[in-house]
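Thread amino acids onto this structure.
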């Protein structure tokens, strides 16, 4: 298509522009099994309009995708979710939500590249889907924290019991979270940042 001289090409929306005060940017991934709330978390906490790649679920996934416990879910992330949040005037986090269905996990390798750390979202109704997720992070050496996402119908468990069930080392933070709410999602990211800071060797 040919553009006329009168055509206007616009850039990012003004509210999406990176703050002038930002001096450091960090990549963080939001990971978890299918339907645990990754897209919800990115959307609730992002200060810019989030990028999502959700597509309607079709018959093609029948017998392939494990949707036990989330049978009412009608859409799924097929590539990634993307958002951004300013933690301070200087520090900005770029958020990448991974696809949860196992057939899309080959995309994780690219999403993990350059990531400083990860938030693992867990649904206690389907705890078993978290095992492989945590295993992949451990294999790649990506530091992570575990957020137990609150679903109204999900069973409640003591966090120490969940730590044992997930076979988490004592130093890995595990906490309750509600991905629907900005404050709770921001607290999860702050927990990750504090954990990463604690892991950084002190310099003389």
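Threaded sequence (204 positions):
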């Amino acid at each position: 298509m040919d553009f006329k001289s009168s055509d206007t090409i616009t850039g990012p929306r003004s509210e999406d522009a990176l703050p002038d005060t930002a001096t450091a940017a960090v990549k963080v991934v939001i990971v978890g099994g299918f339907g645990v709330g990754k897209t919800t978390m990115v959307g609730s906490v992002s200060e810019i309009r989030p990028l999502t790649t959700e597509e309607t679920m079709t018959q093609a996934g029948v017998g392939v995708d494990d949707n036990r416990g989330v049978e009412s879910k009608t859409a799924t992330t097929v590539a990634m979710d993307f958002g951004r949040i300013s933690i301070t005037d200087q520090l900005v986090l770029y958020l990448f939500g991974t696809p949860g269905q196992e057939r899309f996990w080959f995309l994780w390798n690219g999403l993990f590249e350059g990531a400083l750390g990860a938030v693992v979202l867990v649904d206690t109704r389907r705890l078993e889907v978290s095992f492989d997720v945590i295993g992949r992070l451990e294999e790649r050496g990506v530091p992570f924290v575990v957020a137990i996402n609150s679903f109204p119908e999900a069973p409640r468990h003591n966090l120490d019991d969940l730590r044992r069930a997930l076979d988490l080392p004592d130093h890995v933070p595990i906490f309750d979270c509600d991905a629907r709410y900005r404050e709770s999602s921001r607290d999860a990211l702050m927990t990750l940042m504090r954990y990463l800071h604690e892991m950084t060797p002190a310099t003389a």
